[in-house]
Automatic annotation (TrEMBL):
It comes from Cryptolaemus montrouzieri. Belongs to the Nudix hydrolase family. Residues 1-133 form the Nudix hydrolase domain. PROSITE patterns: NUDIX, NUDIX_BOX. This is Bis(5'-nucleosyl)-tetraphosphatase [asymmetrical]. The keyword Nucleotide-binding applies. Pfam families: NUDIX. SUPFAM superfamilies: Nudix (SSF55811). Residues 1-28 form the signal peptide. Keywords: Hydrolase, Nucleotide-binding, Signal.
Length: 149
């Protein structure tokens, strides 16, 4: 049975430029990733995504909007064991919301697609970032296409 994690691939576009949020882990290889974490017993994947985003980045549900139909799945192995991660695309809507890191992370950056892809070392995350950039520009350039869960 694979470990299951969930999170949000959060972006902002307050200045007209799409920027993705990546957090740098304070453990292991110090890789860069969107906020995510393991689901707890009796918790849905979406509940875990909200909880982990608040724990790791300090954002609450009122700080961002979820793109309901943009749920993505990454499958990979960690230390030889299968892991499944569910990500929903989300847009930070509160310009006054600031990242508040947990002790699980040592840094954060808001990055353009190119910069985010340069920091991510995993090909599946690079592919996901590229796909999300296309989705944002092609499908969600207007406010009415975004909805709150």
């Amino acid at each position: 049975m694979p470990k299951v994690a969930a999170g949000f691939l959060i972006f902002r576009r307050f200045t007209g430029i799409i920027e993705f949020l990546l957090l740098q882990t304070s453990y292991g290889e110090h890789h860069w990733t969107p906020p995510k974490g393991h689901t707890k017993r009796r918790e849905t994947d979406l509940q875990a995504a909200y909880r982990e985003t608040e724990e790791e980045a300090g954002f609450t549900e009122s700080d961002f909007k979820i793109f309901e139909n943009e749920k993505y799945v990454l499958n990979y192995e960690v230390k030889g064991k299968p892991k499944v991660v569910y990500y929903w695309l989300a847009e930070l809507t509160d310009e006054n919301a600031h990242v508040k890191l947990s002790d699980e992370h040592q840094d954060f950056k808001w990055l353009s697609l190119k910069e985010a892809c340069e920091l991510c070392k995993y090909e599946d995350m690079i592919e996901l970032l590229n796909k999300c950039q296309r989705v944002i520009t092609e499908k969600y350039s207007k406010e009415e296409n975004v909805s709150k869960i």
